[in-house]
Amino acid sequence: MADKGKPAIVAVCGPTAVGKTSLAVELARRFDGEVISADSMQIYRGLDIGTAKATAEEQQGIPHHLLDILDPQQRFSAADFVARAADCIRDLCARGKLPIIAGGTGLYIESLVKGVRFTEETFDPQVRRELERQAEELGAEEMHRRLAAIDPEYAAGLHPNNRGRVLRALELHRQTGRTMTWQREHSLPSSPPYRALLLGLDCSSREFLYSRIDRRVCQMVEDGVLAEAKLVYDNRGSYQTAAQAIGYKEFFPYFEHTASLEECVAQLQQATRRYAKRQLTWFRRMEGMHWLTADGNPLEPACELVRAHLAPEQEEP
Predict the structure, then answer these.
(1) Predicted confidence (pLDDT) per residue in 64-83, tens digit
(2) Is the pLDDT of residue 26 over 70?
(3) pTM listed for this prediction
(4) CA gap 112, 193 in Å, rounded
């Protein structure tokens, strides 16, 4: 087999609020694994509630990696994630542990399992300044629309407010004539670096998923997300990534006295539902995904898939 000898990993993917953490933790318990977070916001210290970071209780004593590794003013890219996750995988495999990737950032997971090689591009700072100026004048939706016109596949996986990635993709095209989709496809090794099992979680109906999302948002408010959102708002000049993230920016009108708390909560619920739809779009186009129903009993079929994936390397204890 061509993949023989490659590290075996499991990735638990899916939209927000679908139950990825719970499934990943249970798989880690059954197969002697540890969890590597693949979430572009949960890397930040002090931003716990708005990012739906797993609590100590939810982690159930299973080590979680790539949580709380940066301060909110620091930048973090897909290239950074792939490098750090690869280090984690090497360490876990050396200790005989099963690496279980869990998260909803499709770009991170796909780049990792495909072994995307990121290269440093030299760009003209004047082009970036011009794009930044256009973004300020025209708004995020228009910049996202322009990206969709030249690279619809990559744009489909990005929220319009993900300004950094939208502008980087436009910058790449402006400077080189290449799309981000083309760049990623031509940055792949001849063979993936891992034997990856992809487990996708979804709900039996969109209404069921959306009801889970709405309940989670209400729980976030009860748990104190407003304090985190105010911290981000007060530091929005330096917390640039967090200030654009779903979970915080929706409360900015409340702090500016232009919307009620109820209106902001409703806006966050709607934005999160839309984000979940984009996540599903991304994961559904990934090859080799095994889909499980979250509101059924995903654990047992997931265990069967993991058991077959690891055999004869590792048996479930």
Answers:
(1) 999 999 999 998 988 999 99
(2) yes
(3) 0.81
(4) 9
Q: CATH for 125-185?
A: 1.10.20.140
- Whether 195 shows a pLDDT value over 60: the answer reads yes
Task: Return the pLDDT at 315.
Answer: 46
Side chain identity at 62, as an amino acid letter? I
What 3-state DSSP class applies to 275? helix
Greater confidence, 2 or 83?
83
Q: What's the rounded Cα separation, in Å, for the pair 165 and 78?
A: 10
Name the fold adopted by 8-118+187-310: Rossmann fold (3.40.50)
φ, ψ of residue 195 in degrees (nearest 5) = -90, 95
At 33 the three-state DSSP class reads: strand
Neighbour count for residue 62 (Cβ, 10 Å): 18
Cα–Cα dist 263/307, whole Å:
47
Spatial CB neighbours of 105, under 8 Å, sequence gap ≥ 6: 38, 39, 40, 81
Give SS3 for 70: strand
pLDDT digits (tens, 9 = 90+) for 38-60: 999 999 999 999 999 999 999 99
Q: Measured in whole angstroms, how far is the alpha carbon of residue 93 from the centre of its chain?
A: 23
C-alpha torsion angle, residues 89, 43, 283, 94 (rounded to 10):
10
Helix (H) or strand (E) holding 309: helix 299-310
Closest by CA position to 25, among listed 16, 12, 38 = 12
Q: What b/e sequence results for 23-60 when a residue is b if at least 16 CB atoms lie within 10 Å of its CB, and e otherwise?
A: bbbbbbebbebbbbbbbbbbbbeebbbbbbbbeeeebe
3-state secondary structure of 64: strand
Domain locations in the chain as residue ranges:
8-118+187-310, 125-185
